[in-house]
Design goal:
Blueprint: E1 2-8, E2 11-16, E3 28-36, H1 42-47, E4 55-56, E5 61-68, E6 80-83, E7 86-87, H2 93-96, E8 107-108, E9 121-124, H3 127-130, E10 132-133, H4 143-147, H5 152-162, E11 170-174, H6 178-189, E12 194-198, H7 202-210, E13 215-217, H8 221-231, E14 237-242, H9 247-256, E15 257-265, E16 287-290, H10 299-307, E17 319-322, H11 326-334, E18 341-344
Parallel strand pairs: 11-12, 11-14, 12-13, 14-15, 15-16, 17-18
Antiparallel strand pairs: 1-2, 1-4, 3-5, 3-9, 3-18, 5-6, 6-10, 7-8
């Protein structure tokens, strides 16, 4: 089969690799119907050291079950499924507490011998716990929206939920990428009264406004902090969602969070040290939260709203490519010519 493999920064190739096969009796093999390029894929695209063997890429997908292991009980060949970006048993104590990304027996795609999702097919470990069936066909117009339940929209939802967004909350979202915009939509759904989107790409912030942003701040750094504080009477906002992952974004979050507020981070941190002391978080009684989104905990809650049209997070996809054109998809996202690239194998 064909699959995307990254050999180093900027070096993504489509290659022929072995077809996935059942290894454990709890596995399933899934033919991929839709996948995509994630903003987090751009981190290795910028930084990965050159390798001879390469790394499979991709972790978000919809597909059709082709084969199941002898111990799989809830799935059968032909089922249409959504997969979270992390596989899990969904039964261990961490899973039951809603943290499937920390499953005691789980893991992540494109690592430790598990293939990537930017491919024609994939082996899914712990299939019963991981995959969620969806009552749609392979040509459904809902596929882009359903694909966001694999990662991007539910990462935005996780940010809002961990930030304790509720009716009447004021929220600042830092970053106008696909996750930041998803966080705007999620915060609106949870009842936020005011949502300030910090971003400077008009085509993206326009979608943010459509999804519920009441204000847009294009300025960055201290200038951006000052503008948000002026807009909020010097108080800042109850919740700040940091959807970038770089230190300047964290510093802006610290600068605009309200006394007693929460900073919720879902941008994969590209830094190790950040202030948490008296002058930053401690003195204002600020809560710092966030992390990899356990999307398996949220799929069944949000799926009905996508199926009946109440939510359409699929608008984050503004370009569609074939599997052979995945390298061009990476370039388009890296050059900010595309917000998020949908892949149709």
């Amino acid at each position: 089969m064909r699959a995307a493999v990254m050999y180093g920064a900027g070096d993504v190739r489509i290659e022929t690799v072995p077809d996935p096969k059942l290894v454990q009796p709890t596995d399933a093999v899934v033919r991929i119907v839709r996948t995509c390029v994630c903003g987090s894929d751009l981190h290795p695209y910028h930084q990965m050291d050159a390798t001879q063997d390469g790394t499979p890429m991709g972790h978000e997908f919809l597909g059709v079950v082709e084969e199941v292991g002898s111990e799989v009980r809830t799935l059968k060949s032909g089922d249409f499924v959504i997969s979270p970006f992390a596989w899990s048993d969904n039964t261990c104590d961490f899973c039951r507490e809603g943290f499937q990304t920390s499953c005691r027996h789980g893991g992540f795609y494109a690592a430790n011998g598990i293939g990537g999702a930017q491919a024609e097919a994939i082996r899914v470990p712990l299939a019963d716990g991981t995959l969620v069936k969806a009552p749609v066909g392979q040509d459904s117009p809902l596929l882009p929206a359903l694909l966001t339940l694999s990662d991007v929209f539910l990462t935005g939802h996780h940010a809002a939920a961990r930030g304790r967004v509720e009716l009447g909350s004021t929220v600042t979202v830092i970053g106008d990428g696909a996750v930041g915009l998803s966080a705007v939509l999620a915060a609106k759904r949870l009842g936020a009264e005011r949502i300030i989107l910090m971003g400077r790409h008009i085509d993206r912030t326009d979608l943010g406004r459509e999804w519920g942003a009441t204000d847009v701040v294009a300025e960055r750094g201290e200038e951006g902090i000052t503008k948000v504080m002026d807009m909020t009477g010097g108080d800042g906002t109850h919740v700040v969602i940091e959807a970038v992952g770089h230190r300047p974004a964290y510093d802006m979050a610290v600068g605009v969070v309200r006394v007693g507020g929460t900073i919720s981070r879902v941008g994969v941190p590209q830094y190790e040290e950040a202030p948490v002391g008296f002058a930053s978080l401690f003195g204002k009684n600020v809560t710092l939260t966030g992390g990899p989104a356990p999307v398996r905990a949220y799929i069944e809650e949000l799926l009905p709203e996508v199926l009946d049209g109440r939510l359409d997070p699929g608008k984050v996809f503004d370009r569609t490519v074939s599997l052979d054109d995945v390298p061009a998809g990476y370039r388009a996202m890296d050059d900010r010519e595309a917000l998020k690239v949908l892949v149709q194998p």
